[in-house]
Design a protein that fits this description.
Blueprint lengths: L1 H18 L4 E7 L8 H10 L8 E7 L4 H14 L3 E4 L2 H10 L5 E3 L21 E3 L7 H12 L15 H16 L3
Parallel strand pairs: 1-2, 1-3, 3-4, 4-5
Helix pairs in contact: 3-4, 5-6
Length: 185
């Protein structure tokens, strides 16, 4: 009889775990204005993975509205509360989390050069508690120039408009400059 109770307990454990599971706490941090971006796409993707706000997860979207002091305050609050995961959507947000030494797992997106910025050790093996995707790794700047020149033969001049206010832009610009020099420009 004891053995049956033990086996029944093992079989029911997954159902009990689902019934009494604690909702995951997911914080989404943006250094600017998240509601001016397609953040709903991320929320829909989380929903598709089973993370429904209010049911299986507590999802909060935080925006610093371009204010560095507000960003620092949000990061300090996140470091203290320790959500299950932080999704950081901009380079300033990721850098602020890294500099604050948060121990929560951080998944980032829209970071141009995570290796160059010192966020991860490498793209293949990020190490630590930071990982993510980069849509515009710095070396892609040169590749984009090459694609443009191949698509529009005879192009002799190309203008690059960039801002020095984002440090990762200089890495992209340098990759474009190197690609232009390699093609004799």
């Amino acid at each position: 009889m004891r053995r049956r109770a033990f086996i029944a307990g093992l079989l029911l454990t997954p159902f009990a775990t689902l019934a009494f599971a604690v909702a995951k706490r997911i914080s989404i941090l943006h250094s600017g204005f998240p509601n001016r971006t397609p953040v709903q796409v991320l929320l829909e993707a989380l929903r598709g993975l089973g993370y429904e706000n209010g049911n299986t997860a507590v999802i909060e979207v935080l925006g610093a509205e371009g204010d560095a002091k507000r960003l620092d305050a949000l990061v300090a609050d996140l470091a203290a509360r320790k959500p299950d995961v932080i999704i950081a959507l901009t380079s300033p947000a990721v850098l602020a989390l890294k500099q604050a030494g948060v121990v929560t797992p951080v998944v980032f997106a829209f970071v141009t050069d995570p290796v160059g910025l010192g966020i991860v050790a490498s793209l293949a093996r990020p190490g630590g508690n930071f990982t993510g995707i980069t849509y515009s790794e710095a070396t892609l700047g040169g590749k984009r120039l090459e694609l443009l020149l191949d698509a529009v033969p005879g192009t002799r001049r190309v203008a690059v408009i960039w801002s020095r206010s984002f440090s990762e832009n200089s890495a992209i610009f340098n990759a474009i400059r190197q690609a232009a020099q390699a093609r004799g420009g």
